[in-house]
Amino acid sequence: MHFIELASGDKMPMLGLGTWKLSRDEAYDAVKTAIANGYRHIDCAWIYQNEADVGRALKECMDAGIVQRDELWVTSKLWNDRHHADHVEEALRESLSDLQLDYVDLYLIHWPVAHQFGIPRPASGEDFASLDQIPLNHTWAAMLECVEKGLCRNVGVSNFSAPKIQFLIESTGVAPACNQVESHPYLQQPGLAEFCDKHSIVFTAYSPLGSGDRPETMKTAGEPSLFTDPVLLALAEKNNLSIAQLMLAWAVNRGTVPIPKSANEDRQIQNLAAAAVELSDEDMQTIQSLDQHHRFIDGTFWEVPGSSYTVSDLWNE
Ligand code: A2P
Q1: For a pocket test of ligand 1, which of 29, 183, 209 has the largest count of ligand atoms closer than 8 A to its C-beta?
Q2: Which end of the chain is least crowded, N or C, by CB within 10 Å?
Q3: How far does residue 26's CA lie from ligand 1's centre (Å)?
Q4: Positive or negative CA dihedral for 212, 216, 217, 219?
Q5: Which uninterrupted H or E stretch holds 231?
């Protein structure tokens, strides 16, 4: 397994198991099989509603001596209704309790979107809090305090654009250790990747396989399909890889950290093996040419009438 070093010196395994979309039972089973097969990086979040099941699996793996805590990388994320500085530590403590851990390796602000406290899923514009009401740099300062308290080893962000990260750096002097964003051959985000590189921010790629199992409400008619892309299919065949493995190997070879979700043990094994595959410069360039800046997770679900959030402000595009 390749590792990538964060600004703190901590080393993150360059492929992790994504846990979004796993039901509670699936999450428990998936984490157990993943760890048994060599996964050492598990990506979690409060909003996935399965952290207690992930935690049960982690504890059983550690109790059975399959893995030690310091060999594991566990990430969790602050949900949008806990952005106020008064609620950040409490939210992290809740995730730690569910995960049955004393600390997480990385804690991220999940979205640059704030809700009113206690409203995880907003139904109307009034359920949101604007970024003027709860500024991102206040949330960020509270995240940094959690590192001081030993509740997490590193802090970072998710779904943040370069200007939003720049704002955090300018107001607190501390860059996030990581930015976790959607990335796959159709959404390569070269400008953001370069910005992250410049500031020693690890670029974690969520939905690295295009997240075909995301809810129907997040799908659009006529969207492109990675798994049937003729160029990817041909390159996968040439390299004796599955198309999923090709996409994951590409992600690792370009210095990003993919976190594919799979509830299936065979596919988990296949995905982990891809992290060790080296692709030629020529194949890397061919995949680079496929970029079409297509977001499968486009953020339109935050554009609720009456809220202050728009997709163009969200991505600063
Ligand atoms: P499953 O959980 O049944 O394996 P993403 O990580 O981009 O969100 O994508 C997750 C989707 O990709 C899930 O539908 C998952 O199905 C599927 N998937 C994961 N690994 C593979 C693989 N190696 N080959 C094909 N599909 C995969």
Answers
A1: 209
A2: C
A3: 13
A4: positive
A5: helix 230-238
Q: Look at residue 161 and give its three-state secondary structure.
A: coil
pLDDT at 1 over 90: no
* Residue 76 CB-density burial (10 A; 0-12 exposed, 13-18 middle, 19+ buried): buried
Q: Which atom of ligand 1 is nearest to the CA of 263?
A: 2
Based on the residue annotation, tell me whether 186 is a catalytic residue of this protein.
no
Q: Looking at residue 143, what is its pLDDT?
A: 98
Q: Look up residue 163 and give its amino acid.
A: P
> Residue 125 Cα, ligand 1 centroid: separation in angstroms?
33
Q: Residue 152 is encoded by which pair of tokens?
A: 């997490």
Q: Ligand 1 centroid to 15 CA: how many Å?
A: 14
* pTM for the predicted model, two decimal places: 0.98
Nearest Cα to 125, choosing from 113, 134, 137, 136? 113
Calpha distance 224→168 (Å, rounded): 34
Among 84, 105, 83, smallest CA distance to 96 is for 105
Maximum Cα–Cα distance for the chain, whole Å? 54
Supply 228's token pair: 């049937």
Other beta carbons within 10 angstroms of residue 309's beta carbon come to: 20
User: Tokens 């400008």 — which residue?
Assistant: 191
SS3 (DSSP) at 104: strand
Owner of token pair 């979205």: 111
AA identity, residue 100: Q
Residues with CB under 6 A from ligand 1: 18, 207-213, 242, 244, 260-264, 267, 270-271
Rounded mean pLDDT of 97-104?
98
Are 174 and 204 in contact by the 8 Å Cβ rule? The answer is no
Of 182, 239, 171, nearest to 209 by C-alpha is 182
